[in-house]
Amino acid sequence: MEYQLRKLVTHYRKSLQIKPDNLAIYDKIAELYYEQGELEKALEVCQEALQIQPDLASVPKILNKILQTLGFEGEEITAIQNILQKKLDYESFHLLLSRSETVKTAADAKTWKDAIGLGYDFKEKKQWDEAITAYMKAIEIEPSLSLSYFTLNCIINYCFFPQPNQLERIITFYHQLIQGCLTSPYAYVVLGDMLTAQGKVSEAITAYKTAIYRTIYLSQKITTKYINSPKIDDVSFLIIGMGKAGTSSLYYYLCQHPQILPATDKELHFFNKKFDLGVDWYLAHFPPLPVEGGFLTGEATPWYLGSYEVEKRVFQLFPKIKLIAILRNPVTRAISQYNMHLRSMRENRSLEVAMTSELEILKGMADPTQVIEKYWQTEKGYLWVGLYFYFLEKWMAVFPREQFLILRSEDLYNQTDKTMKQVYNFLEITDYSLSEYPKVNSGSYSKNNDELRKKLSDFFQPHNQKLEDFLGMKFNWE
Prior knowledge:
Layout: H1 2-18, H2 23-35, H3 39-52, H4 58-69, H5 75-86, H6 90-96, H7 112-124, H8 128-141, H9 146-159, H10 164-180, H11 186-197, H12 201-216, H13 224-228, E1 231-232, E2 237-241, H14 247-255, H15 270-273, H16 279-283, E3 289-290, E4 298-300, H17 310-317, E5 322-327, H18 330-343, H19 351-362, H20 375-378, H21 388-396, E6 404-408, H22 409-414, H23 416-427, H24 450-471
């Protein structure tokens, strides 16, 4: 049955290559996924159609059926349609979910919405074990949506590191789930991460490859030519920096291009944290590339630029790879990172105290990137990360200049089409425009102290000048 579904979807996708705005075909594909219980895929197809024509009559009809099947009603359906017309943002989606006040534990949850709402509450309170149990309950109730898998993986990888017995419980749960039903491909990514944490690297590789297989063969980008073409394992590009400068948006825009095949995750942290797992583990996160067709793949770990020895490791494995760095006004970037840490409760100092403390340590150092270990005992690196010249100088001592594309974050948001054309030209793929360019993973915060900004700008001015002289380009940061 799965093969027949894939065959029909491939047939309809080929029709879309001839006439990409044929909305009736999107409706047929969404119906196919819906009938087979692939609700997440059906939602994605509806989102594609809504981006072409937001007031489309036929696709919202199947969309309502999908959302009603998932337990949504009334104003919730309208709210989700509005999200789908833009981009399915996980935090926004969470906020739509309200649970009954009587639901206090995962055992009380009768619907996936109640379980996810409970998991979100536990996550906000940093009650990680309870949050994990709640998201596992949501997956058990509704295994076709990737929201629960995605959030569960974020908790385990970035917030909470389970004990061996907890890991084993999650892995056993995933094995039972995968054997029992069709699940989101992202379930295999989470399973791979759990197995990696256990040191079962070969099993993890199998899980990642399964995730890639299940994703790629239901993708609109796949054609018979792709399926039948000889393939190679390779990585075409890396977005190496910088954090809080727009890497999430850039990677999202890139992944919409018909020639870009995404990795299992945007950030893999292989070269700065997981290099000892080996290149086979790394390559398992990417789709194999056909020899023909001009397909590319890559990832975006924005902390590669400033991480120790990463440039040498990348060159060792991929000496011809294309490297993209997107740089933001270092003052604005530092404040953005501070506010991100504040929201996630990784920072409890005021902005002025945090910035002034770091400023006093960095001032007067010939090479401020060569900070001593004691620095990291008190500081978060808000300013240190903005010393772009010193990081790029190290990378360009290893890779030739022509393998780099340096972008201004401000241009990505103010001249998006023009900037993306630069990226496509650098990667040697065709131009491609999106109907809109949503900001991904952006935050908001109040206006900051002008006097502090001036102090930070004065600190960065000579370092920014070195950057401009070194690259031969103007950034015009105040």
